[in-house]
Amino acid sequence: MTNIHPVAPELQVSQWLNTLRSITLADLRGRVVVLHAFQMLCPGCVSHGLPQAAAIHETFPAADVAVIGIHSVFEHHSAMTPVALEAFLYEYHIRFPVAVDRPSTTGNIPHTMEAFNMRGTPTLILLDRQGRIRLNHFGRMDDLRVGATIGQLVSEAAIDPNSNQYQEQPAAGRVGCDNEECAISDNMGQASA
Amino acid sequence: MTNIHPVAPELQVSQWLNTLRSITLADLRGRVVVLHAFQMLCPGCVSHGLPQAAAIHETFPAADVAVIGIHSVFEHHSAMTPVALEAFLYEYHIRFPVAVDRPSTTGNIPHTMEAFNMRGTPTLILLDRQGRIRLNHFGRMDDLRVGATIGQLVSEAAIDPNSNQYQEQPAAGRVGCDNEECAISDNMGQASA
Amino acid sequence: MTNIHPVAPELQVSQWLNTLRSITLADLRGRVVVLHAFQMLCPGCVSHGLPQAAAIHETFPAADVAVIGIHSVFEHHSAMTPVALEAFLYEYHIRFPVAVDRPSTTGNIPHTMEAFNMRGTPTLILLDRQGRIRLNHFGRMDDLRVGATIGQLVSEAAIDPNSNQYQEQPAAGRVGCDNEECAISDNMGQASA
Amino acid sequence: MTNIHPVAPELQVSQWLNTLRSITLADLRGRVVVLHAFQMLCPGCVSHGLPQAAAIHETFPAADVAVIGIHSVFEHHSAMTPVALEAFLYEYHIRFPVAVDRPSTTGNIPHTMEAFNMRGTPTLILLDRQGRIRLNHFGRMDDLRVGATIGQLVSEAAIDPNSNQYQEQPAAGRVGCDNEECAISDNMGQASA
């Protein structure tokens, strides 16, 4: 039964911003981890996902909850460069550490995005104190529900991760960006697949 | 140590709406209880508090979380009558049970409001599965924080209530209504005091 | 051609609030007049219509634009009494004059509401400087469009009212209240009809 | 008296997007012109200015009102390139023509921005049917007021531009970006000055 909540794979990062040193998920064992995967030109990330991640970062004590942004670019690669991301983070006052997801050499989907089976941006991933994936949500999720899940994970004594979660309903099979999210298209050159 | 989180006093109710039978807090032992005290002419209750209570009611399974509205009128008594409340609940599509807080015969503050030491409306009170008061918040509280507290209470095995809560900061000493809340004035005829 | 924009009928008022003396539309000739018909328990009026009317009142010079609220109760008469309205206006900080639409003795629809052929609340009516009806809109209307129409009426030299208006699309035939508006039902006892 | 409202200088454009051919202000004589100057990484432009410009574009008939975006980059030049802008416009569904403000060879402020004496982004500029500048506003401006000014300009018979405008209050002397706007700093290398 230990496989019900798999341990998250490590982040694959080509560059870190907003932090002086690299961060690994292994370093964060013992804390709840909030991973927010975004693209700087994804409207739903800018209007909803990143403000929510920032609010989580402000609301919960750092000793309990770590917030990490992951810039997982799967489209418009020439527009969303690290230098553009740096300006974006500065102008939007994003304070928490942000990892640039390592680009694939053979396709559009960067490595961390693929390793976590993300379907697009924004994606919210929650890890428990033992590093197990307890939520992997594509698209908008309201604060009440996000808060409830984090509150539950925070209160766990880092022992039993097999408690019940709020069920994820699969999102509609959209492709491209709308106001809420940017979905990976089916034929977007996951050349390795 | 058992007094750290006192057991909530019973509701004092002159009339119930949105339910066929009376409800006591004792009936709800084993579930987390959300009490939302409001006035139908309190702007902050209408714009924020009641929609939040309704969202809690929709988000959490009824087996885990019970939501109860309390109409605690401490001003404009001739305007906020039960018949007016009934029309209000109908037009605003409030579905959860609502108690009319029993009016005082000697002052403006109704009995449940006084028993819980509420400072005005909206007030959000959270009880754990054992009926102990774990949060008593006057004014606006954001969804992320409310969700986190409920999520924590839901995950408790109905055993140990003495865990840490997010700290309440005392609100400013306003009197009367602004967009966010209606505060009881100091000289508002709590004749029994 | 003078009938293209009919002159508005006079208001029929049983009581005025927020003003020391009665107001007639005839008194307001030479100014653009904004009539906002609402019910205090109409959710769309509270969340959108009244804040918009208040913003108009603050934005435009009183010498150019007069804003008048009309409390046109066609349902829940026992809840939306003048005493309740007075408390409501106080708590919601409504500053502009409000007329209580004169109740019908034979049906549910008050007299001004019927004289203007209103279909429910909120209704926004704009009169030009000559007292002619230039807009009669049931339901929500965005600020950009409302501003444009008022701006045009303000700039008219009180001479030629026959200029083009933005077209009104008929709203859907709903009955009862939703978040946006409260519609008069077809059989709501317009006994005089 | 003809100098009260000066005729706008021509746009200085290095590249057009969302249009097959170049546009000049001279081409637009006879129509009201809305110029919205923005930067793609200016938070206030993304959250407020561009949605407002898009709403103007949708609300008013093209025969009366032309909407033009101007990408006036005065900071983070390496991040806000034309290729990045193109991706941005695509993802945010901006449909109206957008000009890339011609960069200065000697400083940070592009030529159109300097010619119009803009103080930062977003800036909203309104021209009357004769091409005269009737509003030049830095920062947020609410829809009611913008609508009123456009409505007035639309109703003018393209004859007398010297009517009264709503007064502009000078904005606070901020430098850099906040949620609302990005202000040009005083020492930002206007080398030509």
UniProtKB/TrEMBL annotation, chains A, B, C, D:
Residues 2-164 form the Thioredoxin domain. It comes from the Bacteria. SUPFAM superfamilies: Thioredoxin-like. PANTHER family: PROTEIN DIPZ, THIOL:DISULFIDE INTERCHANGE PROTEIN DSBE. This is Alkyl hydroperoxide reductase. It comes from Candidatus Nitrotoga arctica.
